[in-house]
Design a protein that fits this description.
The chain has 1 helix and 8 strands. It has one helix spanning 2-20, and strands at 33-37, 40-44, 49-54, 65-72, 75-81, 87-97, 101-105, 111-116. The protein has an 8-stranded antiparallel β-barrel.
């Protein structure tokens, strides 16, 4: 019985280690540029800052909301900087990032699919 418990413990540790290593890793250099999903735009600069705007809300790039971003493995974090000084973090799981395509989803499973336009 003692041996069975030890084997079960080893199995649990190995399963945990294996599951931690399965998240895809994406190259953050591919994120730089201007991305579009219909009327929604996001622009990522290589210095970790960016902007977002939605033309359906009659907002232009000049009026865009600023954010800071990081991409680690498949976790994209945008920290939106509000005009009144507040910061609002948003976390996403990246599912695809190529030189022309960016796809991610939020914690509510809402998916976003962007194409690079610049």
């Amino acid at each position: 019985m003692k041996r069975l418990c030890c084997l079960f413990g080893v199995f649990c540790v190995l399963a945990l280690l294996y599951s931690c290593g399965n998240d895809p890793k994406f190259d953050q250099d591919l994120l730089s540029g201007k991305w579009q999903q219909e009327t929604l735009f996001e622009k990522y600069l290589s210095d970790g800052t960016g902007f977002t705007w939605d033309e359906s809300d009659d907002v232009t790039e000049d009026e865009a909301q600023k954010f800071e971003w990081t991409l680690e493995d498949n976790e994209l974090v945008q920290i939106h900087i509000m005009e009144m000084g507040g910061k609002v973090p948003k976390r996403y799981k990246v599912t695809e990032l190529t030189s022309n395509s960016l796809k991610y989803r939020d914690k509510f499973e809402k998916s976003y699919a962007f194409k690079k336009v610049d």
